[in-house]
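forwarding from the other thread:

> can someone predict this with 2,6-di-O-phosphono-beta-D-fructofuranose?

sure thing
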Amino acid sequence: MTTEGDVLGQIVTIERFILQQQSSYPQATGVLTNLLYDLALAGKIIASRITRAGLVEILGSTGQENVQGEEVQKLDDFADRTIYRLNDHTGRLAAMASEEHADVLPIPDRFPVGKYVLLFDPLDGSSNIDYNVSVGTIFSIYHRKTQDGPGTLEDCLQIGRDLVAAGYIVYGSSTMLVYSTGHGAHGFTLDPSLGEFLLSHPSICIPAEPQYYSANQGSQKYWSQGVRRYTEWLQGHNGSQKGLSLRYVGSLVADFHRNLLSGGVFYYPTDTKDPKRPHGKLRLLYEANPLAFVAEQAGAYASDGRQAILDIQPTSLHQRTPLFIGNRDLVEKAEAFIRDYD
Ligand code: FDP
């Protein structure tokens, strides 16, 4: 018979897990550990606000005052400020960059600077927020490249292969945090009654047998010949394979997370819909790189259709990229169709 004591003995909080991982690296100083722990805290704060999103109508809409006389913030602004404020004074970071801001976010002069830089997309998929559909936060951590002083653009424009850690938080039917420091990808589920992320998915490995493909097929007429033929192949036309089911949430984190656990491929290719956006919609630094890093740690792969996402040298903070991410064989097939037809 399993006793309550047995169950308690098996619980691993994110704090204990990160500390255990740190203890296998004697040279580790604990700075990264604390940084990850602060991101988990940010996730808890954002999750608690998201579950109240529908009450905005009752409590006051954005730009107005709520019943307590406070101004109600938009959720993406709230998420953005939460992550920034939890990390601006700790002495762990040299700079931050957020998908919500045009330029690098400096650490205020009154606080010490540290050796890491943090890049984040505070609330990805935010067009879904009004409809109770899952959204997410995505984060990337690099060592700074410059030696000292305030962090610079150069510290932020690093290739994905140089990531120290990356991960995401998905706010769905439960809140989950998945991260990697380059030693596997590990998932934690928030227990709201304890207010703790508990280890629920250690050493995630994408299933070899994929189930889903995910793309906004409403844009199909704007896709290249290669991408259209690839989609037909995924659907099993010409007996190419058994054919996958389509699932598309329209929140990158949710679509990626589902495919990571079930096997499958997500793609947001280049399209001709918007001439001002010739390289697709998704951002290399805030979306593609961190998810590509987690994907590779889980045995999956990410490409822009021609090369590995993690090998692309960024040239600007908000650079966009086509993205194909999921089971390696499916992503390599996309590369082959693009090579042959585009
Ligand atoms: P959103 O515009 O809602 O913030 O990059 C942002 C993103 O969502 C992704 O999360 C999502 O995968 C994609 O855009 C959805 O774009 P489409 O509406 O064009 O499908």
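The chain has ten helices and 13 strands. thats all i got for now
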